[in-house]
């Protein structure tokens, strides 16, 4: 009895396996027989149109119903085949430095003009850096105003603002992801066979509270975040070479240098891919009050307890988190109404350090909001 059951099981397994192989074989056959280049697709469409004319439907010859229009004959030959493998993008934005011959002639959004009039903000000339980064749109400049409305499944989805939309590091990739271009660093120099990288920061860039961004912010990151074992138990390999953590030097207020024991040829690509963003998301003037090197540890312990944390590191991370509306940012929009509020609201950063070619301070849109719904509602 057991032997017979075993035979039946073996036969069933073989049948299932044969069925799977048959389906896989048909799939491969379909793939190889399917036309892929535009010329083959065009010929296939013409063949289909020809066969459609050769085959008559049961309705042919029937008396048409009065008042109903006859359907238009459709042919794939009428369809324009898109180019699925373009050599380049049709349109993309580009970045460049502010032309010196234009001097310092800048404009700002109407909502910021009102704040300047009431004394809430200094003039736009004082808020922009010496050499703002210019973003040249692919189609047009402006106009100002409006709200970018987005949807999310939950508060965690709003974190895309920090993870993707706030892509502001020392350097970044161009629109096609092919070339490393300037951002917070105006330029850089590689030396000693790839063991040394010197970056020149954009002078006059300000955090969203008006405090200047300088090399001291990177010193804070390097000494008190990256090399603090409680904050960074495992240092990323992009910041190590030859078994040693990279060196760091503050050359002056707007120049920093990184050094490696061995050549680090992909350091720039690593910075453009996100590592450069890590370096400039810790405003020293704000976060030092939550770090034991600058604030009494007992005071921090008490403050952490009040906030519901056991460790100062938890308090620090909470204050650095994107949900905190008090921490200064370098983003185009900053948090003003965090979750669980619905909608979550980001508002334009009055100290954002980029302009378009006409000198209009970016961004164009006043606000960015996240409405939170379940997935089924969003799909409607």
Question: Could you explain how this protein is built, in words?
Answer:
The strands form five sheets. Strands 3-15-13-12 form a four-stranded mixed beta sheet, with no helix packed on it. It is α+β, with helices and mostly antiparallel strands. It has eleven helices and 15 strands.
Strand-helix topology:
Elements: H1 2-33, H2 38-54, E1 94-97, H3 110-117, H4 124-127, E2 133-136, E3 147-152, H5 160-165, E4 171-173, E5 180-182, E6 185-191, E7 196-201, H6 215-226, E8 240-241, E9 244-245, E10 247-252, E11 255-259, H7 267-279, H8 284-287, H9 297-306, H10 312-320, E12 333-337, E13 344-348, E14 354-355, E15 367-372, H11 375-379
Parallel strand pairs: 2-14, 3-15
Antiparallel strand pairs: 1-2, 4-5, 6-7, 7-11, 8-9, 10-11, 12-13, 13-15
Q: Could you spell the SSE succession in H and E letters?
A: HHEHHEEHEEEEHEEEEHHHHEEEEH
Mean pLDDT: 87
Main structural class = alpha+beta
Strand content: 15-25%
Spatial extent as radius of gyration: 30 Å
Number of helices: 11
Most strands sheet: 4 strands, mixed
The number of distinct β-strands equals 15
Helix content: 25-40%
* Side-by-side strand order of the widest sheet: 3-15-13-12
